[in-house]
Specification:
There is one protein chain. 42% of the residues lie in helices and 17% in strands. By secondary structure, it is an alpha/beta fold. The protein has 2 domains: 202 residues, NAD(P)-binding Rossmann-like Domain (Rossmann fold, 3-Layer(aba) Sandwich), CATH 3.40.50.720; 98 residues, UDP-galactose 4-epimerase, domain 1 (Alpha-Beta Complex), CATH 3.90.25.10. It has a 7-stranded parallel β-sheet, with helices on both faces. A 3-stranded mixed β-sheet has the order 7-9-11. It has a 3-stranded mixed β-sheet with strand order 8-12-13, sandwiched between helices. Bound molecules: nicotinamide-adenine-dinucleotide and thymidine-5'-diphospho-beta-D-xylose (TDX). Nicotinamide-adenine-dinucleotide (NAD) binds next to helix 1, helix 4, strand 5 and strand 7.
């Protein structure tokens, strides 16, 4: 029986990935190792727990002794575990360095120790930095601009060095922005969807013209599984959907889909170091046989439907510890905003 470890499997992409793995009838044991930080949520996988092929372990990827007890005999590790929110990394970067850098290093050491035949590092397009024209290729240098992307870049460097120095059988995926079910409401699309449903301001940073390429989470999960199975050891694979949108376009779409009042849209002071545009060339992953299945308008409809139908899920987050973070991050900026409405 194949033994698969998914770190961070109670988070957004990790939980969607575990769901996809378990849909296959394969003989496999999937162990989720997750610290359950504020971003981890057992509700994301609770309906899957009746599947006896799934095991959940609450723990930290920095805990070397715990890894000694879990990793022997593993066939493949997918490392999703990370601190992931750029804005939080601007407030406090220590936990990012700890989990994203030291955590990845600890996993790499143990992967080597137990001769695990495959290590898949889930990285991000943000490691390349911002690009105004054209698209980043896997061979481009990393120029990260936030403490979050810098810690992800450091992790990628460690993965590379373990491959080059010790022959560790690793591959890296670098995807663009994901959206879909179970994404924490601190992130742009779920924050705007849930605020729109609640009739609260939609706080758009700067001029709202920053561009991201949005990939539906299930498409990214298929790409990650494909890279894990068929990617060339030591290589990096970009993943993106070619769905470049300005934040303003998405905010207007959300207003349209939810029927919210246009006056909710509020331009607030910008995120420090805000990357203007992300775009990656995906020729390499297409050559492995991947292509997106869900376009942006279909994906947005599905995502909006999910948040409308799962109010209990996001309300319990928004009404908990998130309130303090939200007030610290947004209250003053919203109160001092000079521009409201979409025109
Ligand atoms: P998320 O914040 O929703 O989930 C992260 C998960 O990791 C949580 O369940 C959390 O509890 C867990 N975790 C955090 N620290 C841990 C630790 N020390 N030990 C064990 N578990 C820990 O994040 P996400 O959006 O699902 O992102 C998953 C991965 O994909 C991350 O590595 C992220 O950098 C990468 N990524 C995300 C996006 C995106 O748009 N969301 C895009 C590209 C890459
Ligand atoms: O309130 C907001 N207002 C706003 O205008 C928030 C939360 C975001 N934004 C803007 C900033 C970005 O231009 O929306 C865009 C998307 O923001 P985030 O959801 O914070 O994502 P981003 O910073 O692009 O990073 C995401 O994609 C790459 C993930 O959070 C990372 O984990 C991933 O690596």
């Amino acid at each position: 029986m194949k033994k698969i470890i998914v770190t961070g499997g109670a988070g957004f992409i990790g939980s969607n990935f575990v769901r996809m793995l378990l849909k296959k009838k394969a003989r496999q044991k999937v162990t989720v190792l997750d610290k359950l930080t504020y971003a981890g949520n057992l509700d994301n996988i609770s309906d899957l727990m009746k599947d006896r092929r799934l095991e959940f372990i609450k723990g930290d990827i920095c805990n070397a002794r715990l890894l000694d007890s879990i990793l022997p005999g593993t066939d493949i590790i997918y490392n999703f575990a990370a601190e992931t929110h750029v804005d939080r990394s601007i407030l406090e970067a220590g936990s990012f360095v700890k989990t994203d850098v030291v955590g990845t290093y600890t996993l790499l050491q143990k992967t080597l120790k137990y001769s695990i035949p495959r290590f898949v590092q889930i990285s991000t397009d943000e490691v390349y930095g911002s690009i105004l024209k054209g698209k980043f290729r896997e061979t481009d240098p990393m120029l990260p601009n936030s403490p979050y992307s810098a810690s992800k870049a450091a992790a990628d460097m460690l993965v590379r060095s373990f491959h080059k120095t010790y022959g560790l059988p690793a591959v890296i995926t670098r995807s663009s922005n994901n959206y879909g079910p179970n994404q924490h409401p601190e992130k742009f699309i779920p924050l705007f969807l849930t605020n729109a449903i609640e009739g609260k301001p939609l706080p758009l940073y700067g001029d709202g013209k920053n561009i991201r390429d949005w990939v539906y989470v299930e498409d990214n999960c298929r790409a990650i599984e494909l890279v894990g199975r068929s990617g060339k050891t030591g290589e990096i694979y970009n993943i993106g959907a070619g769905e470049e949108k300005t934040n303003l376009y998405i905010a207007r779409k959300i207003i349209e889909i939810t029927g919210a009042d246009k006056s909710l849209l509020t331009l607030i002071s910008d995120r420090p170091g805000h990357d203007r545009r992300y775009a990656v060339c995906t020729r390499k992953i297409s050559r492995l046989g991947w292509k997106k299945k869900v376009g942006f308008s279909e994906g947005m409809q599905k995502t909006a439907r999910w948040y409308i139908d799962n109010e209990k899920w996001w309300k319990s987050i928004k009404e908990g510890a998130f309130k303090r973070y939200y007030s610290r991050m947004y209250s003053r900026r919203i109160d001092t905003s000079v521009k409201k409405g979409t025109e």
